[in-house]
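Anyone? Bumping this.
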Amino acid sequence: NAGVMQNPRHLVRRRGQEARLRCSPMKGHSHVYWYRQLPEEGLKFMVYLQKENIIDESGMPKERFSAEFPKEGPSILRIQQVVRGDSAAYFCASSLQGADTQYFGPGTRLTVL
Amino acid sequence: DAKTTQPPSMDCAEGRAANLPCNHSTISGNEYVYWYRQIHSQGPQYIIHGLKNNETNEMASLIITEDRKSSTLILPHATLRDTAVYYCIVRVVNGGSNYKLTFGKGTLLTVNP
């Protein structure tokens, strides 16, 4: 049973470019969560999605960041016009139900030059 | 979610049991205790969770005090690969909207040869 998959594992972008991070949940899971871990800091919740719905995006910056989880395909976290402060590890987690145990992927490490 | 307190760091000799404490004195009756760990640069790994009874799985044991104000995660035979930051998290399960995991600073467990 494959775990949560994330790609790419490493992403380098120049300031002003767009970053797209993908997350495929565990088989059978329809709830996805994105967390961000800035250097030397703890993980912070960003957004919670179910298929085709954003349930809670209270942890996501108001500008430049968006997330989606379409009916088909992976969840996407999109960061437009990246800045150096966006450099971080972005982790995706999934669960069977909204209050169930969350299982994390390996993360995508974004570096903004 | 209730706040948790963990020691910032601990050491353990390889092959010995590692006992990681967590205080959660304001825990509510419907809040579970969850443990995750993060090995350097990897995604958080779910270890175990419990409500009031002691729990054991293939990775670890969780001992929760009778008043539920504290708990201990036990790795029975620590190996070098268990070196990681261990997070104790308290959250409501099966109801409510507490799907966000709140990661504190955790305990850095270093297993020494």
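Late reply, but here is one note on the structure posted above: The mean pLDDT of chain A is 94.
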